[in-house]
Structure to design on (386 residues):
């Protein structure tokens, strides 16, 4: 697989910097993008549907050309420290962009300086805008899992079902259509008790209690980092898959029960490798949809991940094709392609195209057309005869 990081025809996914900001948006922290100004405007205009309806501390450092050339990190540290002392966030996150990548900013060291001066937990992420939001969101949630989750005293607490955390819930994958609440309702209707949703619909205090779960459900690639940290720290097993469609959800829930019982991690949702019906998108959600369509219709369906993909998925048969030149050959013999509308130009004219808008790819352009596949999977199938 080549990594040219150049798109001549199709769009690109939201960058890793936006992934950090999106994952931490609702947790009461302060996120600073170290950049001149462009990355913040791209994030709040195209990548963050909660921007106008939900308060959050997301800032830009306003990096100047002189500061970039001379390496004046003290200006960044001083400004962040001053703002943090005034705003008193739960934590501080500093995320990189292309300019500090080129100048070699040490974000871990910057974060240590800020924490030493403020006493506020601080993180530095060496994001650079060259990777997808999945990488950034996964790193951010992993940092939260490493730093804030602790063993809680659950004496006297009665759980109505198997306790589980939902990892990887971000609007870049699920928009703001209520998918987070729909997943919670679905799990609770099937014998589970949802402790936390990482990170839509739950506070930082709720995330801190995640060690009490018997199993974690990773619903998108953004949750893989936290899943591995929670497994390492507390031994909590995880299952990877998005509960789409009745049959697939039943299969997923069965494996969740098994993992809660035996402590083993499981990855399901891989489509048929030689199928001529193809789903393109984020790895976990695309593989889950492909598996659900195969189970419901009997027509073999495969998935292609167009974002950063965990080796667990690629090793299980989900190819990763980030660049359009790598993706086109995988579609050569496709009869049906299910993908964001902006993929249409590289889909063979002989193939049927089914639009499935993705917030992390086309932003707000097709937001009104994004289906809620948790609640309306059968409606989506019927509409496009899948």
């Amino acid at each position: 697989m080549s990594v040219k990081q150049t798109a001549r025809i199709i769009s690109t996914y939201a960058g890793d910097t936006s992934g950090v900001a999106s994952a931490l948006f609702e947790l009461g922290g302060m996120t600073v993008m170290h950049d001149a100004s462009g990355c913040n405007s791209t994030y709040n205009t195209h990548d963050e549907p909660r921007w106008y309806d939900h308060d959050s501390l997301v800032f830009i450092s306003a990096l100047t050309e002189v500061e970039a050339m001379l390496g004046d990190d003290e200006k960044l540290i001083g400004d962040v420290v001053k703002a943090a002392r005034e705003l008193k966030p739960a934590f501080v996150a500093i995320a990189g962009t292309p300019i500090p990548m080129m100048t070699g900013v040490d974000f871990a060291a910057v974060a240590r300086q800020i924490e030493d001066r403020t006493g506020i937990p601080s993180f530095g992420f060496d994001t650079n805008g060259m990777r997808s939001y999945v990488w950034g969101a996964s790193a951010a949630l992993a940092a939260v899992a490493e730093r804030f989750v602790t063993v809680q005293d659950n004496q006297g607490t009665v759980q109505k079902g198997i306790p589980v955390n939902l990892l990887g819930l971000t609007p870049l994958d699920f928009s703001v259509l209520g998918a987070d609440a729909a997943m919670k309702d679905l799990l609770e209707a099937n014998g589970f008790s949802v402790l936390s949703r990482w990170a839509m619909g739950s506070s930082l205090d709720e995330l801190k209690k995640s060690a009490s779960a018997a199993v974690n459900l990773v619903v998108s690639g953004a949750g893989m980092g936290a899943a591995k940290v929670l497994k390492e720290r507390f031994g909590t097993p995880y299952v990877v898959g998005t509960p789409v469609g009745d049959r697939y959800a039943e299969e997923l829930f069965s494996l969740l029960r098994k993992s809660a019982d035996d402590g083993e991690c499981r990855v399901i949702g891989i489509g048929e490798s030689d199928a001529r019906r193809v789903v393109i998108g984020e790895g976990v959600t695309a593989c889950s949809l492909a598996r659900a369509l195969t189970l419901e219709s009997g027509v073999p369906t495969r998935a292609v991940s167009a974002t950063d993909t965990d080796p667990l998925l690629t090793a299980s048969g989900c190819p990763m094709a980030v660049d359009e030149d790598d993706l086109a050959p995988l579609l050569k013999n496709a009869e049906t392609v299910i993908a964001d509308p902006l993929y249409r130009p590289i889909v063979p004219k002989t193939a049927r195209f089914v639009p499935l808008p993705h917030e992390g790819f086309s932003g707000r352009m097709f937001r009104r057309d994004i289906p809620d596949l948790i609640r309306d999977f059968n409606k989506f199938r019927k509409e496009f005869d899948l």
